[in-house]
Amino acid sequence: MPKERRKRISQAHQSSAKIVTRIFALPEEETERLIQNKECQEASANELFRAATSQPVVNPVIPAPAQTKKEKKQLKHELLLQRLTAGTSPYSKSHNRRLKRKAKSNLSTDLASVEKALQTVVPKVCVSEPKLDDQASAKPAKAVGLIGEGKGATLSKKQRQKALELERLRQTVIAQNPDFKGNPFAAIRTHAQNSLLSHDNVQNTS
């Protein structure tokens, strides 16, 4: 069987790696392609420099700084608290029901408030004055304890002694009165008018 021929090993170098096209740092949409016109090709470098410097400079728009993760979390927390506290009661539903029942019971059992309301609504009743006819027909009140009136019963021995003792004390007081010292008869007359029962009263009583 014939032997396989050995391959000839070439002394030449292997072919070099292909050059990969350059990847720019900026993305494609942010790059700007310059299209050269015939005028630009014919113009000198100084003219091109003057034309570039004469164009208005546009201030670049500075983007707003991006919020950090911590700031976003804090903002979400604040919005949640605002939604929870807006239009809601800090108490539970059962507590709110108890408060409503208590308010209703206070309305039904508070008699003091009803009395105040009646005083403001109901006008004050004016007290009617007595008529002149009633005054004329009314009997004059009798003075109590007049001399000559009588009680229909005789006094006992102790009652007489007590009356005499009272009159004795009264005499000493009358003697010290300045009106009695100045005019005794006038003082006796006024005392008699105030204490003795007149004849008109005797006729009316009979």
Brief digest:
With 206 residues, the chain is an all-alpha fold.
Task: Please tag this protein with its features.
206 residues, mainly alpha, 10 helices, 0% strand
SSE arrangement:
Blueprint: H1 38-42, H2 45-54, H3 69-85, H4 93-109, H5 111-121, H6 132-137, H7 157-175, H8 178-182, H9 184-195, H10 199-205
Q: How would you characterize this protein structure?
A:
With 206 residues, the protein is mainly alpha-helical. It has helices at 38-42, 45-54, 69-85, 93-109, 111-121, 132-137, 157-175, 178-182, 184-195, 199-205. The protein is rod-shaped and about 190 Å long. The protein has ten helices and no strands. It has a domain at 153-205.
What Rg do the Cα atoms give? 65 Å
Mean of residue pLDDT values: 71
Structural class: mainly alpha
SS summary, helix count: 10
Strand content: under 5%
* Poorly predicted parts: none
Distance between the termini: 190 Å
User: What string gives the helices and strands in order?
Assistant: HHHHHHHHHH
- Count of β-strands: 0
Tell me, what's the shape? rod-shaped
How would you sum up the major sheet?
none
Helix fraction, binned, reads 40-55%
